[in-house]
Amino acid sequence: MSDKIDAVLHEERSIAPPTDFARSARYSAEQYRELYAQSLADPDTFWSKAADELHWFRRWDQVLDWQEPHARWFVNGQTNMAYNALDRHVQAGRGDKRAIVWEGEDGEVRTYTYAELLREVQRAANVLESLGVKAGDRVTVYLPLIPEVVISLLACARIGATHSVVFAGFSVSALADRIENAQSRLLITADAGYRRGAQVPLKANADRAAESAPSLQQMLVVARAGAAVEMEPGRDVWWHEAMAQAGTEHQAVPLDSEHPLFVLYTSGSTGKPKGILHTTGGYMVSLHLTTGAVFDLKDDDLLWCTADVGWVTGHSYTVYGPLLNGATVMIYEGAPNQPDWGRYWDIIQRHKVSILYTAPTAIRSFMRAGDEIPERFDLSSLRLIGSVGEPINPEAWMWYRRVIGGDRCPVIDTWWQTETGSIMLTTLPGAFPSKPGTAGLPMFGVDPAIVTRDGEEVGPGEGGLLVLRRPWPSMLRTVYGDDDRYRKTYWGEIPHVYFAGDGARRDSDGYITVMGRVDDVLNVSGHRLGTMEIESALVSHPAVAEAAVVGRPDDVKGECVVAFVLPQVGHTVDPAELRQHVAREIGALARPDAIYVADALPKTRSGKIMRRFLRQVAAGQQITGDTSTLEDPSVLERLQTTPAQ
Ligand code: WT7
Predict the structure, then answer these.
(1) Share above pLDDT 70 across residues of the chain, in percent, rounded to a whole number
(2) Is 525 within any annotated ligand binding site?
(3) Is 343 annotated as a binding residue?
(4) Are 72 and 65 in contact (CB under 8 A)?
(5) Which residues form the AMP-binding enzyme C-terminal domain (predicted)?
(6) CA 592/CA 610 separation, integer angstroms
(7) Which atom of ligand 1 is nearest to the CA of 307?
(8) What is the overall mean pLDDT for the chain?
(9) Closest atom of ligand 1 relative to the 418 alpha carbon
């Protein structure tokens, strides 16, 4: 195991919640314990109460219908996500409250009140309908982090179209695969996006993706960057032109609680990304509840979740969770080091951000850039800081608390996944002491256990596999178009429980530490990448005969991609070109950090690649473990003297 995990295992610090914070916190330890116990003992009462805080056009008949592994929550209830996120607040007289404070990478600032955002969403819903989009249709969204991405999601939700957001950093072929898999009829994109000052040609990418995505009939194009693009008559429509013609009145459509809200693709241990399907009612109730509880939301908070809306964190804690709670969100379009590593602190100081939610990889980059950068800014508006996406090493945690949180803000480490939809494990701020590097206790209704492969629970302090023993409202409902994969991956590995794919341990206080993936999934800068996905990209290059990809611990990214490739006979491998090739096939985030050009891979006699040894080679470690099952143990010796490129 890496040094970082080792450090977590030996971490024994426990930091009491600050008294001031605790005094006005939503939950005390006793309240949490009582509610948590109720959520397990009497889930019907617990979840009915949580759901009753939202608007339903028709109330449900039954809280949960569980036919393992399929759940239906709030059965026969009818509701609308956008109505609950917008209309509900405007009707209650909160229309003048700010919903979004957006800052572009170039410094432009735009704000939307709830009333303004509602108007834009109503307009956009009318635009979608005028383009023929109906409830149940899929709409792919390939946009930079601009207000239109939020408007697009809510407009889809308003009419019952299922959105599928593809991160704007993904390549043409990744985009085409996702449009095709979802059978989307409409794509919402922009002329171009900004990243570190440079333009990303989104529309040109979309045009190329459309060539291999026949389901696609229309494109709605936001003019973001003034880039020259080709508009195909009859297929492409400018967002601003369509919006200018659209009416600002639109009735939210009552939708069944199980109506598909969104599909979001994520990597698994096979080559093809999975479309994780989330539905309306349960996801909405979980997001409303967890955002309020975990972030201890107050009416005057400015919540900044730094994730792009291309990832689940952005869906849940930039868009849906905060807006359901009537909160104000900060959104920043660009990179954390644009123009320099002070950008986040400058944003916090100028806009008075009170809650910051970011990823360990970002925290480690800030740490590396030096304390003197954040120290130049006034960060006293912050009152709570959070972390998500990968294990956070105690050193980074302590730095975050001290330098960013001024030793005053509680730090919450939150464990969850694209599949879980909402936060599953954390230490409620103000209620419990936190332990650096440890997510903590289960959220309401979450029933975790640490088990062996056979499903036997392990004792306190022992490592095992993290499972969830009962369904929860925001759980994924299936893998889009592949229910069999859903059953096998999540409910088939360990009998009758949800298998998360992570290794974890629980201490004697019940705090759970999640240590990382136990499958062939890498976590690079908080983003999930399947090793097989990268391997398929590598072997699709004519010079590569065979490839194996492993992760290597990295001080900033958590983990980085290392590839071992065998050249095709008669070809030479150019590492720089191969990196480019992977970026083109998947996206820049999958680009290998190191490439070993090898003459053989360590395989068992039955032909299975022993990745364990490759991980050791990649990390420059001694080879340990039984090498006797290898067909040719000398392969390892040769690999150890092969330079990484
Ligand atoms: C995987 C899920 C959840 C939003 C962002 C990532 C890892 C996530 C933590 C944490 C340790 C974590 C797990 C998980 N992970 N949060 N607090 N501590 N590991 O969503 O892309 O679906 O990735 O991220 O390995 O399985 P995702």
Answers:
(1) 98
(2) yes
(3) no
(4) yes
(5) 533-608
(6) 19
(7) 5
(8) 95
(9) 22
Residue 592 CA to ligand 1 centre (angstroms): 21
118-129 mean pLDDT: 98
Q: What is the whole-number distance in angstroms between the Cα of residue 515 and the centre of ligand 1?
A: 10
Residue 517 Cβ inside 6 Å of ligand 1? The answer reads yes
- The DSSP bridge partners found for residue 561 are 551
Pairwise CA distance, residues 174 & 178, whole Å:
6
CA distance 98 to 305: 16
CA of 416 to the centre of ligand 1 (A): 5
Q: Residue whose CA is closest, atom 21 of ligand 1?
A: 528
Cα–ligand 1 centroid distance for 425 (angstroms): 11
Measured CA to CA, the distance from residue 232 to residue 202 in angstroms comes to: 15
Q: What is the pLDDT of residue 644?
A: 93
The two three-digit tokens of residue 292, written as one number? 């309020």
Nearest atom in ligand 1 to the alpha carbon of residue 526 is 6
Residues pairing with 499 in the sheet: 467
What is the rounded CA–CA span in Å between residue 566 and residue 451?
38
Q: Is 416 annotated as a binding residue?
A: yes
Which atom, in ligand 1's list, is nearest to the CA of 517?
25
Q: How far apart are CA 278 and CA 261, in angstroms?
A: 6
Residues 498-555: pLDDT tens digits?
999 999 999 999 999 999 999 889 999 999 999 989 998 999 999 998 999 999 999 9
Exposure pattern of 113-127 as b/e (b: 16+ CB <10 Å)? bbebbbbbbbbbbbb
CB 302 within 8 A of CB 510: no
Name which of 189, 155, 149 is nearest 332 in CA terms: 149
Total length of the chain: 645
The verdict on the CB of residue 379 being under 6 Å from ligand 1 is no
Pocket probe mutation, ligand 1, options 523, 527, 557, 589, max atoms within 8 Å of Cβ: 523
| Secondary structure of 108-141 in HEC code, one letter for each residue | CEEEEEHHHHHHHHHHHHHHHHHCCCCCCCEEEE
> Which 8-state DSSP code applies to residue 513?
E
pLDDT digits (tens, 9 = 90+) for 272-287: 889 999 999 999 999 9
Q: According to the model, what pLDDT value does residue 629 have?
A: 82
pTM of the model: 0.94
Instruction: Look at residue 162 in the predicted model and tell me its pLDDT.
Output: 98
**Buried (b) or exposed (e) across 552-569, using 16+ Cβ within 10 A?**
bbbebbbbbbbbbbbeee
pLDDT digits (tens, 9 = 90+) for 471-499: 999 999 999 999 999 999 999 999 999 99
CB atoms within 10 A of CB 91: 12
User: Is the pLDDT confidence value at 2 over 90?
Assistant: no
Tell me what pLDDT residue 1 has.
42
Percentage above 90 pLDDT, the chain:
91
Distances (CA, A) of 134 to 141, 185, 354: 16, 10, 39
CA–centroid distance for 113 within its chain: 26
Going from the Cα of 557 to the center of ligand 1, the distance in angstroms, rounded, reads 13
Ligand 1 centroid to Cα of residue 501, in Å, is 10
Q: Is the ipTM of this complex over 0.90?
A: yes
Q: How many CA atoms lie within 13 A of 411 on its CB side?
A: 30
